[in-house]
Design goal:
The protein is of the alpha/beta class. It has one domain: Glycerol-3-phosphate (1)-acyltransferase (3-Layer(aba) Sandwich). The chain has nine helices and seven strands. The chain has a seven-stranded mixed β-sheet, sandwiched between helices. Helix 1 packs antiparallel against helix 3 and helix 7 crosses helix 9. The longest helix is centred in the C-terminal third of the chain and has 22 residues. The chain starts with 5 loop residues before the first helix and ends with a helix.
């Protein structure tokens, strides 16, 4: 039976990349204008949300969001979520209205068309380079000073073992949150791996559930190693428990 689905999955994956490209091509002139100046980023963000919803609905995905706490307009946050799918970027854009900037791996900049805007609007990190990681903090600080929020998938990538519920978190998101005294917004993505994982021959249309948890506040103003560790462990426990129960 699984063998018979292989043609469907091949078409499915091709269709995904077609959907990524269509709105970018349609909005291309407006996207170019929106990235001409950093202060125009909120306009780019609006179009990015349209792009994300177009891709999700075009793939036959419909999302349902539970909000334990609502992010407030004009407030900066550190958004974090588990990372299991290529659709995590789209779902994050679809459910969060506060303009934010992704911190992501530089390899995604190599994707045709998508990568052109990705490398000009996101904060790229080479995790093998300590110099690159330091540059991330400098760029993130500039964005936060502009009143934007930051989004990081703190696992640092998708776990190689798909049976792993949640890989250990990196420090970056929590150090930034402490240094800038911004709330951390933990978000659970329950179904993204089922809908479209990084395993090529997999996926199907259907529901995508997400939950925005109560914010985690920075209770100390120091970003020393112990404070970062405690904040990181608190966020990890919250998401790991929730995902264990609901996936």
């Amino acid at each position: 039976m699984r063998f018979l689905l292989i043609p469907f999955w091949i078409i499915w994956r091709i269709w995904f990349y077609v959907l990524i490209a269509i709105p970018i091509l349609v909005m291309f002139p407006f996207l170019l204008i929106s990235i001409a100046r950093e202060k125009w980023y909120p306009y780019f963000f609006v179009m990015a949300r349209i792009w994300a919803k177009f891709v999700l609905f075009g793939m036959g995905f419909y999302y349902r969001v539970t909000k334990d706490q609502e992010p407030q307009a004009g407030q900066s946050y550190m958004f974090i979520a588990n990372h299991t799918s290529m659709t995590d970027i789209m779902l994050m854009l679809a459910i969060v209205r506060n303009p934010f900037v992704f911190v992501g791996k530089k390899e995604l900049a190599n994707i045709p068309l998508f990568g052109f805007f990705y490398k000009r609007t996101c904060i790229l990190v080479d995790r093998s380079s300590s110099k690159s990681r330091m540059a991330v903090f400098n760029r993130a600080q500039k964005r936060l000073e502009q009143g934007l929020s930051i989004c990081i998938f703190p696992e640092g990538g998708v776990p190689d073992d798909e049976s792993v519920i949640l890989a250990p978190f990196k420090d970056g998101a929590f150090r930034l949150a402490l240094e800038h005294q911004i709330p951390i917004v933990p978000i659970s993505f329950y179904d993204n791996k089922k809908r479209l994982s990084y395993t090529f021959f997999s996926g199907s249309p259907g529901r995508m559930r997400a939950r925005i948890h109560p914010f985690i506040l920075c209770e100390t103003t120091t970003a020393d190693k112990n404070s970062v560790r405690l904040l990181r462990e608190q966020a990890f426990r919250l998401l790991h428990h929730d995902l264990s129960v609901n996936t």
